[in-house]
Amino acid sequence: MRSITIFIITTVLLFNTNSFANKKWGATGHRVVGAIADQYTSNKTKRHLKKLLNHQSLAFVSTFADEIKADPRYNEFDSWHYVNMSLDEDYESSKKNPKGDLVTGIAYCKKVIKDDKASDADKAFYLKMLIHLIGDLHQPLHIGREEDRGGNDIKVKWQFKDTNLHRVWDSQMIESYNMSYSELAANAEFISKKQIKFLQQGSIVDWVNSTQHLTKTIYNSVEEGENLRYAYSYEYLDIARTQLQIAGIRLAKVLNDLF
């Protein structure tokens, strides 16, 4: 019942935005997004994905864009994982990163995937990037402030160990729940076709602005140096899980539209 309530609250935030709402989800979070997306992709889309991804699953390739960060040849894609803007502006009015951001990165991925002249290798590369970036879009601190690097510079403790607010939301809160990505995906909240259709409305920019509504809440959820424990998970883990579910549902929409 409590998670259903939080889902409704999140949906209200999205509705308000659509009526016109620097790292990553951890590996577990991204795999949850991929596994949930797989539940909503059409058979036609699945055939295209199987060909381009060499039969690898959405969950398996969802971490690709983080894995390549170890290779300096791919440094040009670093800024694609986030959008920095102040909390009193939306994406349209914000100062844009000349190196690109989540919005421009997603647009470029879609452009290559739809290009009949692009090679299958290039399409596969940007498809893997796209799968990851749609997940990143729904991590609230990927739509964070530049001055604290999306919460990376907000020092807190997690279960008495030094960390930062971004890392708590990326991975630590989810990992502490001690469920595999497949268990988390299988136990996502049941939602109706009407709710799914509603969540899939809007553009990438609309989704960024929607996520930022939660970003403001997250920034106000802690004090510098605070020791975050089970009470914090009780308050916010369901919101994180809901964001993963929304990301998966929207990723499926993006992929179905492409294929």
UniProtKB/TrEMBL annotation:
Single Gene Ontology BP annotation: DNA catabolic process
Keyword Transcription belongs to the record: no
Superkingdom, taxonomy of origin: Bacteria
UniProt entry tagged with the keyword Nuclease: yes
UniProt-listed Gene3D superfamilies: P1 Nuclease
Descriptive protein name: S1/P1 nuclease
Keywords (A to Z) from UniProt: Disulfide bond, Endonuclease, Glycoprotein, Hydrolase, Metal-binding, Nuclease
GO MF, any single term: nucleic acid binding
SUPFAM superfamilies for this protein: Phospholipase C/P1 nuclease
